[in-house]
Amino acid sequence: MSMCHRQVATSVGLRFYNNAINLLLRGEVDRMNTHIDNASGWTQGHRDTPVAALARAVVAHPDKVLFDFSGEKTTYAEFDALTNCMAHALQALGVKSGSTVTSLFDNHLDAVVLWIALNKLSAVSVPLNTALKGEFLRHQVVDSGADIVVCDAIYAPRLFEVAEQIGNVKRVLVRGNLDAHPVVEFALEKLDAHRGHDASPMKELPDPAALNALIYTSGTTGPSKGCMVSGNQMCHVARLLLRAAPLGPNDVLWTPLPLYHMNAIATGVVSTLLVGATISIAPRFSVSGFWPAVEASGATVVSILGALGTLLAQAADNESMQRCFGQIHTVKGNPFSEEIKAIWRTRFGARHIGSNAYGLTEALITSVPAGEPVPPGSSGRCAPEFDVRIFDDNDNPVPLGQTGEVVCRPLHPDIMFKGYWRRPEDTQKVMGNMWFHTGDIGKFDQAGFFYFVDRKKDYLRRRGENISSFEMESAILLHPDIEQVAVHAVQSNLGEDDLKVTAKLVEHSELSEDSLCRWLVDRVPYYAVPRYIEFRDVLPVNPQGRVLKFQLRNEGVTTSTWDIELSTIKVKR
């Protein structure tokens, strides 16, 4: 699942969209592609929030372990009390309904405490990718509009580097100890001073339609955009994937996915809350440490993404792996080839492999119930809560079996993103004819199974992260020796994208590919450091002067391409 996938009142245009789509779906739904059409009409659907799910769970089993962070265990009741305390403390700092609070956190208990505490105030959590630095970080901090940033001490220096450019920030709460205390315009305080002591519950639960989080996703025609995600959407995504992959109250879900990702939050934490299970969250992924972590946690369900399933299937045996044979019954995540699925079954004893679902941060729209046979390569069928179609470039439906852009519209309120934060124009662009245009290419077969084919949008996915070609190209063009650049994908043997930079140098430049890569290491997130670089005298362009990236993608790696894996460069997180 490519998930890999805003404040409603920010614009009249967005309110218009919400009202218009409601009216549209209450009316007569067109009957094209009837055998894949789920459109039975607009209904209320299930309404829920993570806070409400936690409240129910605390009543049902207060002393059960909810979180396990590398052996640090927290019960449902303890977690509820911690979030109440922090909610009161944040409220004392001026956080209220609709406020945004940005965080830069590794995987630890405070990351989820902050998220739920904010939700209890009907405030909005903005968890940022911890790999961000420089302009990437500045943009998202400023764009969020948050006047409070909460971060691990290790990431505070990155904020100091852009301190003069983040004027919206009034206070930074730091978890841990700082080595230095620079002079900055914002207040610099310890998080420990704001954990609170009042464990009394909030008077009101948040509305299911209220904004729960801004999850930033990379764009291709501009800077990254914050997806406005409601609490109800969080719960909808979790429920949909619970249908697709077994998870019950006696299970332990293990995941290394970062808590700033929609996948880790919704399919990890919220799914756990809904069924009353336990979730074990690792600080990071390690091939050698995977089976010892599974053994120590007692994990029965694993949630991973990208190439991790392939890397584990190809790894050498170890004693923990042998002792854990059959312990994991379900492995969530995409992609899994049929060959890799077979290895997980025979070598590790797993029974359910892959999520067989498709979606983005904006919407999860296909899946298949657990146990239902799925054709190889398919991502399930339309979720019953969505109307999903395949359109050509003129928004006309294409015949079954043919490819086109994947579009959808919800049949219940608040199960899809509410738009892009402070970007009504960008929201309108993807809502053509009242359909959300995913920017992805796919098709349906005669039996109604969906197949993801390609990306229409020019973005890349690498190491489980979305990478904006626009942002990367903007960063590279800051180098004085680069005249023109295209950032594009080349196919990896691990089932995801490798990143290639194809560039034209300024006249008489002596810049080497190795030097450019070393320059980028200090300026872009680790996952965005390119594997391949190639300098050319001329880049292919169309009559309007736009680089023909599809041509570069098709050419892939050439004899003139530099490869980081053949260099001495080591990229660290």
Task: Map the helices and strands.
Blueprint: H1 12-26, H2 50-60, E1 65-69, E2 72-75, H3 76-92, E3 100-104, H4 109-120, E4 124-127, H5 134-144, E5 148-152, H6 156-161, E6 171-175, E7 187-190, E8 211-217, E9 225-230, H7 231-244, E10 252-255, H8 262-275, E11 278-281, H9 287-297, E12 301-303, H10 308-314, H11 319-323, E13 330-332, H12 338-348, E14 352-353, E15 358-359, E16 364-367, E17 381-382, E18 386-391, E19 404-410, H13 424-430, E20 436-444, E21 450-455, E22 459-462, E23 465-468, H14 469-476, E24 482-491, E25 497-505, H15 513-521, E26 532-535, H16 549-555, E27 562-563
Parallel strand pairs: 1-11, 3-4, 3-5, 5-6, 6-7, 10-11, 10-12, 12-13, 13-14, 25-26
Antiparallel strand pairs: 1-2, 8-9, 15-16, 16-17, 18-19, 19-20, 20-21, 22-23, 24-25, 26-27
Can you walk through the features of this model?
α15 (513-521) links the parallel β25 and β26 (532-535). This protein folds into four domains: 8-46 and 378-455, Roll (Luciferase, domain 3); 76-206, 3-Layer(aba) Sandwich (Rossmann fold); 246-353, 3-Layer(aba) Sandwich (Rossmann fold); 459-566, 2-Layer Sandwich (GMP Synthetase, Chain A, domain 3), CATH 3.30.300.30. The chain has 16 helices and 27 strands. The chain has 573 residues and is of the alpha/beta class.
Mean pLDDT: 89
Over all CA atoms, what is the radius of gyration?
23 Å
Number of domains: 4
What structural class should be given to the helix and strand makeup? alpha/beta
Uncertain regions: pLDDT < 50 for 5+ in a row? 1-35
Tally of strands: 27
**Looking at the structure, what is the overall shape?**
globular
Q: Could you please say which CATH topology of the largest domain applies here?
A: Rossmann fold
Q: What CATH architecture label of the largest domain applies?
A: 3-Layer(aba) Sandwich
> How would a textbook summarize the main sheet?
7 strands, mixed
Task: Give the helix proportion (percent range).
Answer: 25-40%
- Which CATH class of the largest domain? Alpha Beta
Query: What proportion strand?
Result: 15-25%
